[in-house]
Amino acid sequence: MYHGRIIETGRYLPEFNVSNDDITKLVDTSDEWIYSRTGIKNRRIAKDESVVYMAASAAKNAISKCELDSMNIDMIVVATVSPDYAMPSVACMVQEQLGAENAFCFDVNAACSGFVYGLDIIDQFIKTRKVKNALLIGVEKFSHLLNWEDRDTCVLFGDGAGAVIIEATETEIGIIDTQSRSIGKQFEALVSPLNNNDTPFYNESSEAYITMDGRAVFQFAVTKVSALLKEVFQTQNISADEIDIYVLHQANSRIIEGIAKRLKQPIDKFYMNMESYGNTSAATIPIALDELNRAGELIGKTIALSGFGAGLTYGTAIVKF
Ligand code: UT7
Predict the structure, then answer these.
(1) 221 Cα–ligand 1 center, Å
(2) What are the pLDDT digits (tens) for 272-292?
(3) How far is Cα 68 from Cα 321, in angstroms, rounded to an integer?
(4) Sheet strand arrangement including 245-248
(5) Cα(309)–Cα(321) distance, integer angstroms
(6) What span, in angstroms and rounded, lies between the C-alpha atoms of 205 and 200?
């Protein structure tokens, strides 16, 4: 049976770096508070880059390494909740940049779970043989959604993009399992409203930014992500020990430590880079995969991926490289 296999990775991170010390000039916080509570020290901010530019750059980075002809890309999925425009989709605009004229393209709104949701969706299209080559991008520009006077949220996020190329394979290597879950009844825990205009008929204007019940999201992430990973291990008849590297959403090092503890796994099996980039939402997992790939750390490994975030949404994939 066909399934998807990640054959190449790429990333784009904006040049402009903002350290915790820089943020202390904006809000009442400290490097000590941010680092000890989250593991974050720096984040990149897309001062000059659009979402489409970051997404297309990450994609070009991946495509250039595997010499894939853009005309052979059948499907482009972009995971994002911070697009430049409400329409068209980022995916359609990336298609134009790549000249991938044969692809069908759409965005997925699953917040920080968007990348694993996208992997799940693409794998289904490959399994039903509708798609041979797909491009999946996770990209966010949360800097344009944040209230930079709100210390609860502005210290946490960064901008960036990661991309993977997925091809159909019949080998044992590739996407072994994917699971996507949602808990809509907890949607209020993490919200980014749209800033609407007034109309001649009703008044809807607002100046609204991201709000988050950090403790609720923290609790949800540690319990649900570890439980879903255990469920997938059981379905696949593998143990947590057989996973070589855990690449989880990079929201908070303490969340990852909590999950490691619940899975009884050593923390050094859990990749972490939030110190450099903060939480880039849907982009954290593909950026981490590309860093591992560049370091030659992916080949031959079995990797567990997990995203979690607004919705609330969460999802997991087991991938063999
Ligand atoms: O990617 C989407 C998913 N999002 C997440 O996974 C985020 C999950 N949640 C978290 O990572 C953590 O809950 C936070 C990092 C957001 C917050 O950490 P916390 O340990 O849960 O802190 P808290 O919200 O309970 O706040 C503790 C204290 C409060 O002061 P009081 O009430 O104890 O006096 C806050 O007002 O820390 C204060 N505080 C800050 N102090 C300095 C909140 N933000 C800051 C700040 N600097 N930036």
Answers:
(1) 15
(2) 999 999 999 999 999 999 999
(3) 18
(4) 174-182, 313-320, 302-309, 245-248
(5) 26
(6) 12
| Contact in structure between 177 and 317 (CB atoms under 8 Å) | yes
Q: Which of 215, 277, 306 to mutate to test the pocket of ligand 1 (most atoms within 8 A of CB)?
A: 215
Q: Report the distance separating Cα 6 and Cα 4, nearest Å.
A: 7
> How far apart, in Å, are the Cα atoms of 101 and each of 56, 75, 76, 140?
14, 10, 11, 24
Within 10 angstroms of residue 89's Cβ, the number of other Cβ atoms is 20
With a 6 A CB cut-off, is 309 part of the ligand 1 pocket?
yes
Kindly state if the Cβ of 154 falls inside 6 Å of ligand 1.
no
Least confident of 87-96, 192-201, 233-242: 192-201
Q: Which residues are catalytic?
A: 112, 249, 279
Residue 251 Cβ inside 6 Å of ligand 1? The answer reads: yes
Instruction: Name the residue of 218, 253, 279 whose CB sits within 8 Å of the most ligand 1 atoms, as the mutation to test its pocket.
Output: 218
**Is 20's C-beta closer than 6 angstroms to any atom of ligand 1?**
no
pLDDT the model gives residue 311: 97
* Spatial distance between the Cα atoms of 212 and 10, rounded to a whole number of angstroms: 30
Cα(259) to centroid of ligand 1, in Å? 19
Cis, bond preceding 88 (omega within 30 deg of 0)? yes
Say how far apart CA 153 and CA 216 lie, in whole Å.
14
